[in-house]
Design the sequence.
């Protein structure tokens, strides 16, 4: 599929079932030697309950795209819609998970997870029940009173995930969420994320440089190209779960996506 075909196909799926729709997004910066085009005419959508990964070579604008969708940066052109409403800045209906944990070191795991509901003036009993439910969901039900300094990297990322889910967002947006942990912990967290996705029915958009991770997790993989950052194609991952790299069909999809990037 050509880049033009992919863009057209993704643009055509921005219908009523789209949880998030990226429409004609371009981003330019003023560089030392003139304007720099970081993103050019990005069009795609993620359906309600879908799991989509974005991959691409270094410098293709994945993180810039993440920040625009998250409302942390403005696009030069185009718009991002969440449930049909334009994103103009950070919103509680969009849960963010970063590679770095960004936990408050002076708060316990439970207090970190409850930070959003607490500032939304959620009733204390409702907040506490929600926090415990989420800690149980990410496998940290017994670590509610632990501080970040006492948690491993994988446990900290579980707290970050629970915190992102605390306000029951419509979209979970993740940027290299498992990039700071070892391979064994990464695989375990991937399994847990899939379990959480299947249990909650959340819509997930995950940005990663790890092609194997994208093929293992996603319903579809959006492959970006660089100079400027744009969508090259979209690959459907029509494989049953759980998926393993030893499967021949997994390997075929992996090699296809990797070849598109290279």
Sequence:
């Amino acid at each position: 599929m050509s880049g033009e075909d992919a863009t057209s196909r993704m643009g055509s799926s921005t219908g009523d079932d789209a949880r998030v729709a990226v429409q004609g997004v371009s981003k330019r910066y003023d560089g030392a030697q003139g304007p720099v085009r970081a993103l050019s005419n990005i069009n795609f959508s993620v359906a309600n309950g879908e799991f989509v990964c974005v991959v691409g070579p270094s410098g293709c604008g994945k993180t810039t795209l993440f920040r625009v969708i998250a409302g942390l940066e403005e696009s030069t052109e185009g718009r991002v819609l969440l449930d049909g409403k334009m994103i103009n800045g950070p919103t509680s209906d969009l849960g963010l998970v970063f590679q770095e944990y960004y936990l408050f070191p002076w708060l316990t795991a439970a207090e970190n997870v409850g930070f959003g509901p607490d500032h939304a003036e959620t009733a204390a009993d409702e907040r506490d029940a929600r926090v415990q439910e989420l800690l149980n969901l990410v496998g940290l039900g017994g670590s509610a009173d632990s501080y970040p300094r006492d948690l491993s990297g994988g446990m900290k990322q579980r707290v970050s995930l629970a915190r992102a889910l605390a306000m029951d967002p419509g979209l979970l947006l993740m940027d290299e969420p498992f990039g700071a942990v070892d391979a064994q912990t990464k695989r375990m967290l991937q399994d847990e994320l899939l379990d959480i996705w299947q249990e909650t029915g959340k819509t997930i958009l995950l940005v990663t440089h790890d092609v194997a991770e994208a093929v293992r997790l996603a319903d579809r993989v959006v492959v970006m190209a660089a100079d400027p950052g744009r969508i090259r194609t979209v690959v459907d991952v029509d494989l049953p779960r759980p998926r393993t790299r030893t499967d021949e069909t997994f390997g075929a999809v992996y090699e296809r996506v990797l070849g598109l990037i290279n």
